[in-house]
Amino acid sequence: MSEEYRYDLVIVGGGPAGSSAAFSAAKNGIKVALIEKENSIAETVRTSGVTWIQNIKEFGIPENCFNSIKNFSFCSPNNEVTISDTVPRAAVLDVRKTYRWLANEAKESGADIFVKTNIKEIIKNEKGDIEGVKGIGINGEVIFHSKVVIDASGFQSTVCKAMGFASQWERFGAGAEFEVEAENVDSETWWLMVGQQYSPAGYAWIFPLGNNIVRIGVGVGKPESNVDPTQRLKEIMEKQLGPIKKLGRLTEKEFHYGLIPNDGLSRKTVFNNLILVGDSAGQANPLVLEGIRYAIKFGRVAGKVASDAIKSGITDEESLYPYEENWRNEIENKINSASKVQDRWIGLTDEEWDKELDIIKELKSEEFLDFIKADFGLSNMIKLATHHPKLAVRQLFNLVKGKK
Ligand SMILES: Cc1cc2nc3c(=O)[nH]c(=O)nc-3n(C[C@H](O)[C@H](O)[C@H](O)COP(=O)(O)OP(=O)(O)OC[C@H]3O[C@@H](n4cnc5c(N)ncnc54)[C@H](O)[C@@H]3O)c2cc1C
Q: Of 70, 270, 386, 394, which has the most beta carbons under 10 Å away?
């Protein structure tokens, strides 16, 4: 016997996008189910958890969920730069705590959370539009009927693939990281490490979490490189390359592995009765492949737009379109500009990276942060591209503006 449920809104995936959509939709007074295939929310961590204090405050994430970062260090094979700020503007999240806090916000607003429930199929109505999902739960088959489905299943994009609306991402990042306890940690400083020895198409990182815990990782762009990030990570840790040496003795605590789409904003994200959000929609900043803040922000927008449509009784593509309009207005231009910088970075040789760091050295901390966040205000870009005293900096920002 299968279990059968009826909800206004069903959300597949209990990551930051799904929990945030469930929160805003439930708060708007509709009946919401949030479905997660793992045994608990954030059982497996697949991310390094870097995000920005400004967004943390906007979302209301509690102080005990993150470690603040004030200094941004970069190293290439023969160069090094540290940009220091007077106040912390970045943070490394305790991913499990943050994601569980997000899910709890949804629960407290009235959403029902189903864990250990793996969605495998979709249910369509006579017109071919989605009207629910089916999966395997604790007691066997589970059927969820709903007016709208949100696909927040991340890289896998389970629902939109089952509908035939998308196929596997062609370009993506693969990342591996160890969470370790280290002897010597500067908990206010992160490291990004670039050049062939760290990653032939990507970068390596050290992100401190406080209490002498750091995440050391390697990200590799696919299909540009066939290097296995886990293998490369073990090698750079064994050789204690660059700033890893300064950490002293390392004790491994946990291993994380994940994939993130890097195909730009190639997907349509609204269909009749269906919304895609977060990684399933490809909403990531390509410069450092960070997507958590977009997942939360646009998750909330998706939940609000879906619940408004459900309340109005019309849930076709047109009525869900305000969601797509919202996120495209906010990030489409920025992501397109950042993709141009990413294309440049992926092709750099070690010597060129050494020189790129000389350009980065010229940036003030707020300029550097806007840049790495792909938060290019047009006027700021024009200012930097036109008036910066260094030619190389002007060239870099001309690229962001769209000139070769
Ligand atoms: C190695 C690595 C490092 C990263 N580092 C950063 C970083 O430092 N900062 C940053 O902002 N971003 C980072 N990202 C990206 C970030 O992790 C994602 O953008 C973000 O997690 C997207 O959230 P999401 O909710 O869309 O998807 P996810 O976080 O992937 O959540 C999807 C959820 O859906 C569940 N699910 C999947 N399929 C089903 C199914 N069929 N049925 C039920 N449940 C299902 C999964 O178990 C999961 O819990 C990194 C990514 C990787 C791979």
A: 270
